[in-house]
Specification:
By secondary structure, this protein is an alpha/beta fold. 54% of the residues lie in helices and 18% in strands. It has an 8-stranded mixed β-barrel, surrounded by 4 helices. Strands 3-2-1-5-4 form a 5-stranded mixed sheet, sandwiched between helices. Strands 7-8-6-11-12 form a 5-stranded mixed sheet, sandwiched between helices. α1 (2-55) runs antiparallel to α2, α3 (118-130) packs parallel to α7 and α9 (334-341) crosses α10 (343-360). The chain is elongated and about 185 Å long. The termini are far apart.
Length: 715
């Protein structure tokens, strides 16, 4: 054993150093005796010489004797100096040996306290090898602790193992009994350990306790726990949201050796990390499981769980031939709440809406938040009539609820609710949600703060689904670069010469069919794909223009349609300017056009857009002019290079005096203020002649040319 080996070494070295000290002491004593003998002999010799000198008359003899006496005196002085130096060295060596013995003893003591016996170390390693975190161990960490304790007990036969966590409202204590204990012993241990853990965690004496107990197989029976010793290790302070401690307790049978206590503490330190991490991970897994199904703000179910339950309920209702209804709720003008009072107030209001839903639906029904201010309710085994009653009740309850802003002002909320019922309105999950969503938008259209059933929509769901299908087709075409430009000629009414061409978007289907923009223009606007489409068409049209310029073809202008969102400063002009510089196309041959209804919807940004457009050298055309309620007002407020007269007026100028007068007067007005006019929908020569007589500058239509895939060079 290592400790016995160290003790034997201590004894051997100590004995040798002691023998050295004894030998040195004997030498010192012997040397002292020799010196005393020499001094005594010298004294006798000096006395004899002095007596002889006193009795002789010979002066020479007396002088010789006197010299001999002086030599003896000097010899004594030298002997004293030598003996003093020898004594000093004896003292120094003695102190050195004593110091060496002390240092050696301290070193050996310290070394003995840090060394662990080989067998003890091997048993410790076996315990640590069992400590492997896994999903199962984390989920069942209390049982995992029992597995570790069985091996731990083999190293040190403790009687109790304890874990304490300071929870939010109480102290959770987990007690593990090693071996057999009487009920009285358990009770005494429980009380004593609980008090000690409360004290160690600085909790009040009356802190509520939540105790779990476990029996771990071990040897021996403990009856008396009056003299119990504890070894405790605290959970590190940096462990987030977790305060606690764990340790072992044992009935006093003697002091632990330094090696034993070191091993116990090292294992406890590892178990602190294991138990603490397992506790935190277990709590985190529970939270993740909760938030996988619940909305973190309102606490009701989220979209994911809602979809799962909707799918389940469809299957259940199909099996049992039940009806159930889906309510789709959208708060009216909720953005105003966030803008007026801040998002925190908006969040509080959403939580209030969730409370209303929880309070007014049955226990078996399900409420969920599926978007920002969108909620949904599944009403189990409820038909259309019952769902309408519940929807009206929810609307009334929310309308009557008073919300308070941070400044103390009160406000109210209303909600639009769409109702769809399975199976009379839809037979699958997707159709049911689409139907409820369409009914909800219908409720908004008819004035908000109301509920609408799907049967009141008269086929609008199919129209909405068709638009959605078109959106996916268009998005796929954009990704696959299947949007191509077609070009429609614009000619000078007086000469018939080609003046420009309008660039039109076409969708090339996988089978080769070409679809005009009119088939998907509504989809573009609704789903916000105008930006991608505009850039794709502009890029391809500019490249086609560059090829014509390289072939020395006649220079004509390009009219390019852009979406209304571009006037919000989304960078289309900078994009076009960069293309012009790269392809060496003069900006003066580019005319951007926007529909009148889009241009007048945002006058402030429209003015900025036109100013920026002209700074870059581009021109502008207002499309479908005359279709607005106050078109002439916008001629005064905004400046355009071109107006394109709405084709609905142009095609009827030969049959309607009103349309003829409108187009004629518009032509004269534009001539007076210096704006060029372009007439659309010119479908025959008679219309073209009439436009020429009115002074219309340019014309386009099927009579003049059909849109083509190649940019025209001449007419």
């Amino acid at each position: 054993m290592q400790t016995n080996h160290l003790e034997n070494m201590r004894m051997r070295v100590t004995d040798r150093l002691a023998a050295l000290m004894e030998s040195q002491t004997r030498s010192k004593i012997f040397s002292g005796g020799v010196v005393e003998l020499i001094r005594s002999v010298h004294q006798e010799v000096v006395a004899e010489l002095q007596s002889t000198a006193a009795n002789t008359d010979n002066s020479l003899t007396a002088l010789a004797i006197d010299n001999a006496i002086q030599m003896c005196s000097r010899l004594d002085q030298s002997l004293d100096i030598l003996f003093q130096e020898r004594n000093r060295q004896w003292h120094r060596n003695g102190n050195y040996v004593q110091s060496l013995m002390g240092e050696f003893n301290e070193t050996l003591t310290g070394l003995a306290s840090t060394l662990i016996e080989k067998d003890l170390l091997e048993r410790q390693s076996r315990v640590l090898e069992r400590i492997i975190l896994s999903h199962e161990h984390v989920a069942q960490w209390k049982e995992f602790v029992q597995e570790i304790l069985a091996d731990f007990h083999a190293i040190f036969p403790f009687n109790f193992f304890y874990i304490a966590f300071a929870e939010e409202h109480d102290l959770s204590i987990y007690l593990y009994y090693l071996g057999n204990h009487t009920e009285e012993a358990k009770r005494n241990a429980r009380e004593m350990l609980s008090k000690q853990m409360i004290a160690n965690l600085n909790l009040p004496d009356n802190a509520p306790l939540n105790i779990e107990e476990f029996i771990v197989r071990g040897n021996g029976t403990t009856d008396n726990v009056d003299a119990v010793r504890m070894i405790t290790v605290a959970v590190p302070e940096h462990t987030p949201k977790l305060a606690g401690l764990l340790g072992v307790a044992y009935v006093s049978t003697g002091e632990l050796s330094p090696q034993e206590e070191s091993v116990v503490r090292s294992i406890l330190s590892v178990m602190v990390m294991v138990v603490g991490s397992s506790k935190l991970l277990s709590r985190t897994l529970s939270e993740l499981e909760y938030y996988a199904m619940h909305d973190p703000l309102t606490g009701i179910y989220n979209r994911r769980q809602f979809n799962n339950m909707l799918e389940y309920e469809i299957g259940r209702s199909e099996r049992h031939h039940h009806e159930f209804s889906l309510l789709q709720l959208d708060l009216d003008d909720f953005k105003d709440i966030n803008d007026s009072y801040g998002h925190q107030t908006g969040d509080d209001a959403l939580c209030g809406v969730a409370e209303v839903l929880r309070e007014h639906i049955r226990k078996g029904d399900l409420a969920a938040r599926i978007g920002g201010d969108e909620f949904a309710v599944i009403l189990m085994e409820t038909g259309r009539e019952g769902a309408t009653t519940v929807a009206n009740m929810l609307g009334k309850s929310l309308r009557e609820r008073v919300f308070t802003a941070p400044d103390g002002k009160h406000f109210h909320l209303t909600v639009s609710i769409g109702i769809a019922t399975y199976p009379i309105d839809a037979q699958n999950e997707a159709d049911l949600q689409v139907g409820a969503d369409a009914a909800m938008y219908r409720a908004k259209d008819i004035g908000k703060d109301s509920a609408c059933t799907l049967d009141a929509l008269d086929g609008q769901v199919e129209i909405g689904r068709h638009t959605r299908d078109n959106a996916e087709k268009l998005r796929e075409a954009l990704q696959q670069d299947r949007i191509i430009p077609y070009y429609h000629s614009i000619v000078d009414c007086r000469t018939g010469e080609l003046f420009a061409c309008e660039t039109l978007a076409r969708l090339s289907e996988p089978n080769g069919n070409i679809v005009s923009a009119g088939m998907f223009i509504e989809t573009i606007e609704k789903y916000g794909m105008g930006r991608d489409l505009d850039r794709m068409i502009i890029s391809k049209a500019f490249k086609a223009k560059r090829e014509l310029m390289m072939s020395n073809a006649s220079s004509t202008k390009m009219f390019l349609n852009i979406s209304a969102q571009e006037i919000q400063g989304r960078g289309i002009l900078a994009y076009a300017e960069e293309l012009c510089q790269t392809l060496e196309i003069p900006p003066s041959c580019v005319v951007f056009e926007i529909l009148e209804r889009d241009a007048i919807g945002d006058m402030t940004n429209m003015r900025k857009f036109l100013s920026n457009l002209r700074e870059k050298g581009f021109a502008f055309a207002l499309d479908d002019f005359g279709s607005g309620y106050n078109s002439f007002h916008y001629l005064r407020e905004l400046r355009f290079e071109y107006v394109k007269i709405d084709g609905a007026f142009v095609r009827n100028i030969l049959n309607s005096k009103i349309d003829y007068a409108l187009v004629h007067n518009l032509s004269r007005l534009c001539q007076d203020i210096g704006i060029y006019t372009v007439a659309e929908f010119v479908e025959n020569q008679a219309i073209l002649d009439a436009l020429k007589d009115m002074g219309i500058n340019y014309a386009q239509g099927f009579h003049i040319a059909l849109p083509t895939a190649n940019m025209p060079q001449h007419q």
